[in-house]
Design a protein that fits this description.
- The chain is an alpha/beta fold.
- Strand 3 and strand 4 form a beta hairpin.
- The strands form two sheets. It has a four-stranded mixed beta sheet with strand order 1-4-3-2, covered by helices on one side.
- The protein is globular.
- It is built from four helices and eight strands; from the N terminus they run βαββββαβββαα.
- Helix content is 19%, strand content 27%.
Length: 187
């Protein structure tokens, strides 16, 4: 009798982001240097360049992928605008941002303490390969009743009392007031 194969392997994350990048080899290098990511495997494409890699950042898995003409996924725009933001908790956000910038990242939102107890920043990896990234460290444990009682609004200063993002698309998306419909980015 054959043994049953598990649908979800024991050594795999249940959700694994696949980051489509223009230069997967450079993205792998950036993730390793900036976030301490560990490469688990790497596969070449038909031309010998990197087509796929599986990495871990802490306990979480992430895939780095090349763009493929037969698939609809594309790398994000280099200005930081993307419908997806990669959120990563790190032990020391200040040191991580310093390492990321030293390895070519652009700061989109500077380091800032937030009312819920985290210190955060947003970056775009070099050449906009597969970001933007929101990096956070918990600095203070807040009770949920306290957080629920705090107010913030979506204003021209952006969500979470952040300064405006340095890209047109993200600034516009973050600057609308709660309850108002979002205008198309082309207008």
């Amino acid at each position: 009798m054959a043994s049953k194969v598990k649908g979800v392997p024991d050594d795999s994350s249940v959700v694994i982001p696949r980051l489509v990048c223009r230069d997967p080899a450079a993205a792998i290098d950036f993730c390793a240097r900036a976030f301490g990511a560990v490469e688990l495997n790497r596969r070449p494409g038909p031309d010998g360049t990197v087509a796929h890699a599986l990495m871990t950042i802490g306990p979480a898995m992430v895939m780095i992928e090349a763009e493929w003409p037969t698939l609809p996924s594309r790398a994000p725009l280099t200005d930081g605008s993307s419908p997806v933001v990669i959120f990563v908790y790190v032990e020391d956000v200040d040191q991580t941002i310093e390492r990321a910038v030293a390895n070519g990242a652009q700061v989109l939102v500077p380091l800032q303490n937030q009312f819920w107890g985290d210190r955060i920043a947003w970056i775009m990896d070099p050449r906009g390969m597969c970001g933007p990234w929101q990096l956070e460290s918990r600095r203070q444990q807040r009770r949920s009743e306290r957080i629920d009682g705090l107010r913030f609004s979506l204003t021209s200063e952006g969500p979470m009392d952040l300064p405006p993002l340095r890209t047109r698309g993200l600034t516009r998306a973050c600057s609308r007031r709660a309850g108002q419909p979002r205008a198309p980015l082309g207008h």
